[in-house]
Design a protein that fits this description.
about 30% strand, Beta-galactosidase, Chain A, domain 5, alpha+beta
Length: about 350
């Protein structure tokens, strides 16, 4: 190949299979990357308005960070300042006298809420999936399809194509994870969980991981919310082996994980709910459906909202590049579709 142009050489090698470079997904409204997320802001977000996850897409270890909308720090409390009523006449006196700075300072000292700011949001924890073979990865692609609200990780190792799909169903109120391979008996992984909260992780009859604990306190308000995250694992073929806070699936054709999360929150003044009953009931109902039915129901509910708005600013060849590359060079190339993708991603996150 003496004298062959480098670009032509790369194209020939790619087409011949000697170089495996992931191609763009078919859906133009997709965020996609040729490497796993290195930090939280690079992970792919899925959510149903109540239950969310960030998918990192690692090969040796997948991290799926979990969130639930009622898990905040602290517990029921009265933020009213006990000195406020007594200070009110003096504040009025200062305002009428034109001493606005003094009035402002007195309000800050005697009338503002205690604590002044609301409780911080809390993370449920991480579902961690560890894979035994992570060498020789080819054709890696991580993408988030905004039209279907499904995050996908796909790659090849040793001639086997592995695929993970993750979505948060607004219909079944579970996060669904499917792992599959294009050859039988190739799905092997170990599932575990970790959290910054005060919690324990146990295994219930063979196939279910259970994380349960209490939220943290903040600004002198003690944590009072109980919470539970439940991960039910079903495999097609192979074996499921329970361990100490971990579950291993070996030599399966595919596996489906259903994740339910709930807290004891009932209202701003009532945290007597039963998260265990809620997660068990949610998993039991979702388990009656096949993956295909859950995905179909999820997509129908999502698209009923997402497809209300379309935006077409035109498309150029730049739209075929990975999303991180497009973001790095927004002013160097003509890429009007990036603005449309940004607009739709904003809607997706809402």
């Amino acid at each position: 190949m003496t004298g062959t142009h480098p670009t032509l050489l790369a194209l020939i090698l790619t087409l011949s299979g000697s170089v495996a470079i992931a191609q763009p997904p078919a859906e133009p409204l997709s965020l996609w990357y040729r490497q796993p997320a290195r930090q939280w802001v690079e992970a792919l977000a899925v959510g149903n308005g109540r239950l969310g996850a960030m998918v990192f897409g690692g090969v040796a270890q997948e991290r799926i960070q979990l969130n639930e909308d009622t898990l905040w720090a602290g517990g029921p409390y009265d933020p009213a300042n006990p000195d406020a009523l007594e200070a009110l006449p003096k504040v009025r006196e200062l305002i009428f006298a034109g001493q606005y700075r003094e009035a402002h300072n007195l309000i800050g000292q005697k009338m503002m809420a205690k604590p002044l700011t609301q409780m911080p949001y809390q993370c449920v924890g991480d579902l961690l999936l560890e894979f035994p073979d992570a060498n020789g990865v080819k054709d890696y692609r991580r993408d988030l399809n905004l039209d279907t609200a499904v995050a996908t990780v796909a790659y090849m190792i040793g001639g086997v194509r592995y695929t993970r799909e993750v979505f948060s169903s607004p219909v079944d109120q579970v996060i669904v994870v499917r792992l599959k391979a294009d050859k039988p008996g190739k799905v092997t992984f170990t599932a575990g969980m970790k959290t910054p909260q005060k919690a324990s992780v146990t295994v219930e009859p063979l196939t279910t991981l259970v994380m349960q604990g209490v939220n943290g306190g903040s600004r002198a308000v003690a944590g009072a919310l109980k919470y539970q995250a439940r991960v039910a694992i079903a495999a097609s073929g192979g074996r499921i082996v329970p361990g100490d806070g971990r579950i291993t699936v070996t030599e399966a054709d595919s596996a489906v994980l259903l994740i339910a999360v709930a807290t004891s929150y009932k209202s701003f003044k009532d945290v007597t709910g039963d998260p265990e009953a809620l997660t068990k009931d949610t998993i039991a109902k979702a388990s009656r459906k096949s993956f295909e039915v859950m995905l179909k129901d999820h997509m129908a509910a999502h698209q009923a909202l997402f497809r209300r708005v379309t935006l077409d600013l035109g498309t150029t060849p730049a739209a075929q590049r990975p999303t991180d590359e497009r973001i790095r060079d927004p002013n160097k190339v003509n890429d009007p579709q990036l603005a449309a993708l940004y607009f739709q991603f904003g809607r997706y996150l809402l």
